[in-house]
Design brief:
Elements lengths: L1 H19 L19 H4 L3 H12 L12 H4 L17 H6 L17 H15 L10 H26 L15 H4 L6 H16 L10 H4 L5 H16 L28 H19 L19 H14 L6 E9 L2 H6 L20 H6 L22 E3 L13 E3 L7 H6 E3 L41 E3 L8 E3 L2 E3 L4 E6 H16 L3 H13 L5 H8 L9 H15 L6 H7 L3 H4 L3 E5 L6 H4 L2 E6 L14 H6 L10
Antiparallel strand pairs: 1-8, 2-3, 4-5, 6-7, 9-10
Helix pairs in contact: 3-6, 6-7, 7-9, 7-11, 9-11, 11-12, 11-17, 12-17, 17-18, 17-20
Length: 642
């Protein structure tokens, strides 16, 4: 009887916390916890049991390897789906991209979707493991490490909520059973206070015995390390320094129930300096851990006849989708990228089974246009190459054969592009070199045929690519077609890569101090790996605006574009455009693509509009809190505009 009462008490505590944030999901707490669930006391009686609770705290991390679960992947303008698949692929994040967000039943509602529960679990863990009388068989080092890991997770869950909702409540401790009504009805805290709290938690986590490198790779890869903590701290401070949160006067009227102003309308330049400092520490931590750019060596694959051009494309591709790539700072093994590969993979051969290569994740035309020319500058700035008529047809020559099938007719847009274009995108006529390649040569290999009635055409029982651009970046090259389907080599989704923190550092440093050799150095490291020249060299030789990298404003635009290219299809662009306050510009543009329902080139390469996106500022920069939550907890303040 004592055991059951303890379980009821633990659940009642959870219900109180839920009520604090307006969640009315808990009904009769007496019947909520089944008899076979461990009590809080015995969950921390021994190391093995406490470790299970530790993993419960990890279990709330978002599944970014799933297109429907990764909020930023489909909520913006970077990836599109066939309209016909709204019912068979009902992605709520894609409904946001189509203007479906609402205040009664918010889409992708993290407020009621588990993150507050995740924070509650973290608090329960910290309260018990910090008590030296609990878990007596836990070593001093492991106790410190575990506390550091959960401090990080608690900070990260707060950050995810902050990124969606802006000012949020801060949950330092779980609410006690005897709390009065005023304590239960918590209010949002000002943005700066929320950020400071998150950073304090991250700093505390970094001071614990969290390892620099995972000591037991066979069993512990994916757990928190010091480079992960420092990289997330840099991202938090970069977000806080960005225009959405730093000096944003659009939200100066927002106040909490105590009358406190939730957004500081005054711009603070020092926030960029703090972000730059944090990013530099993150880089140093990654360096100390041996995290580096992926050193693809074609000599290791001697069975293949592979050009340097193909090796460059593979190196770029594998930097993202190789299992435990050398440049992954944080990859999550609990969520393996398998389904998303199937959703991105085109049908390359007539005998391939429809459904095992669904090919329905597509990139809008503006994303294909975003990548640089082979000279490392935007297509509308390259004074040596003419992209004015992007749909002009051109036949691939021998010089193009490593990127486009020789003799194939395709759009001018697909020629003379940087290696990342060919690493990240598949397209009609584009080479798709993979591990089971039929002749072991990149001169006689697979290529995409995407017109109507071709293998990857828009005639495959609903599994069609709506724009004509396939997400090649997501598909690891070690996969094979057969008459039974397609086999994929899964990989843990990388939440953070080395190039991400390089770009954070370059952005924050430019905003703090303007252009400098240090900014160019970190941008050029990424560009060198990408197979293009450095910023100053590229712009001085090939751009119609050669002085662009020498001003803060010009270099800001270059850094933002570099970030959107380098981190394409990783779920980053959506959040970046919001924090830069550029979503109102980009998310009000039409989604366009080629006319994929056509059989001949002249008809296929006609631009068509798929959707007219609408983004209302300032309303759409933050999620609404469900109207019912405001009724339960009147101390909450609705996001502006909802």
């Amino acid at each position: 009887m004592k055991n059951k009462n303890m379980k009821k008490t633990a659940t009642y505590l959870a219900c109180l916390l839920f009520s604090a944030f307006g969640v009315s999901a808990c009904k009769d707490y007496i019947d909520v916890v089944p008899d076979n669930v461990a009590t809080i006391d015995n969950a921390f009686s021994l190391r093995n049991e406490a470790e299970k609770f530790l993993f419960t705290c990890y279990a709330w991390l978002p599944n970014n390897s799933d297109a429907q679960s990764n909020i930023g992947f489909l909520a913006g303008d970077e990836v599109w789906l066939p309209v016909a698949q709204r019912e068979i692929y009902p992605a709520n994040n894609w409904r946001i991209a189509r203007g479906g967000q609402n205040v009664n039943q918010p889409l992708v509602d993290s407020w009621r979707g588990g993150l507050w529960t995740a924070i509650r679990d973290c608090n329960i863990f910290l309260e018990n493991v910090s008590d030296l009388s609990k878990v007596p068989d836990l070593s001093v080092d492991d106790r410190s490490r575990w506390i550091g890991e959960v401090l990080f997770l608690k900070a990260y869950y707060h950050y995810l909520l902050f990124r969606q909702y802006g000012p949020i409540p801060v949950v330092e401790n779980n609410i006690s059973l005897d709390a009065n009504q005023s304590a239960v009805r918590v209010e949002q805290r000002p943005v700066d206070e929320v950020v400071n709290y998150i950073v304090t938690l991250l700093d505390s986590a970094a001071q614990k015995a969290v390892p620099l490198i995972i000591p037991n790779k066979a069993a512990e890869l994916g757990r928190v390390t010091k480079p992960i903590i420092q990289a997330v701290k840099a991202e938090v401070l970069l977000t806080a320094a960005s225009p959405l949160f730093n000096g944003n006067t659009d939200y100066q009227s927002m106040r909490n129930s105590k009358g406190e102003q939730l957004f500081n309308p005054s711009y603070d330049a020092s926030k960029w300096a703090k972000a730059a400092e944090a990013a530099k520490v993150a880089i140093e931590s990654a360096d100390a851990a041996g995290i580096r750019f992926f050193p693809f060596n074609k000599a290791e694959y001697g069975q293949f006849k592979m050009s340097d051009a193909t090796a460059k494309v593979l190196g770029i591709n594998l930097a993202f989708n190789e299992r435990w790539s050398a440049e992954h700072i944080w990859a999550n093994p609990n969520y393996q990228a398998w389904n998303i590969q199937r959703d991105a993979m085109p049908l390359l051969t007539p005998e391939a089974v429809v459904g095992t290569a669904r090919q329905h994740l597509s990139a809008p035309l503006k994303i294909a246009e975003m990548f640089y020319t082979k000279n490392g500058v935007p297509i509308n700035e390259d004074k040596t190459l003419d992209f004015n008529d992007k749909s002009t047809l051109r036949v691939a020559t021998s010089a193009d054969r490593y990127y486009i099938k020789e003799g194939y007719t395709t759009a001018r847009l697909n020629f003379d592009r940087e290696p990342r274009f060919y690493a990240d995108l598949g397209f009609d006529g584009g080479i798709w070199f993979k591990f089971d390649t039929k002749s072991l040569s990149d001169e006689d290999t697979y290529y995409v045929q995407a017109k109507l009635n071709q293998p990857a055409g828009a005639n495959n029982h609903g599994w069609i690519n709506e724009t004509g651009y396939f997400l090649k970046k997501l598909v690891n090259w070690e996969q094979a077609f057969s008459s039974n389907g397609v086999s994929y080599k899964s990989y843990p989704w990388p939440n953070m890569r080395l190039s991400d923190i390089y770009l954070m550092y370059a952005e924050a440093l430019n905003e703090a101090n303007g252009p400098s050799n240090e900014v160019y150095t970190y941008l050029d490291r990424i560009r060198e790996r990408a197979g293009i020249s450095g910023v100053l060299s590229s712009w001085s030789q090939f751009s119609s605006n050669p002085d662009k990298p020498t001003t803060k404003e010009g270099l800001r635009e270059i850094i933002q574009r570099e970030r959107m290219i380098e981190l394409a299809f990783e779920g980053k662009r959506y959040w970046d455009l919001r924090r830069w306050k550029l979503a109102v510009k980009y998310f009000n543009q039409n989604i366009t693509g080629w006319s994929v329902n056509q059989e001949v080139s002249a008809d296929y390469y006609q631009i068509r509009t798929l959707f007219q996106q609408t983004f209302v500022a300032p309303r759409d920069y933050f999620w609404p809190i469900a109207q019912g939550e405001l009724t339960v907890n009147p101390s909450l303040t609705q996001s502006l505009g909802w």
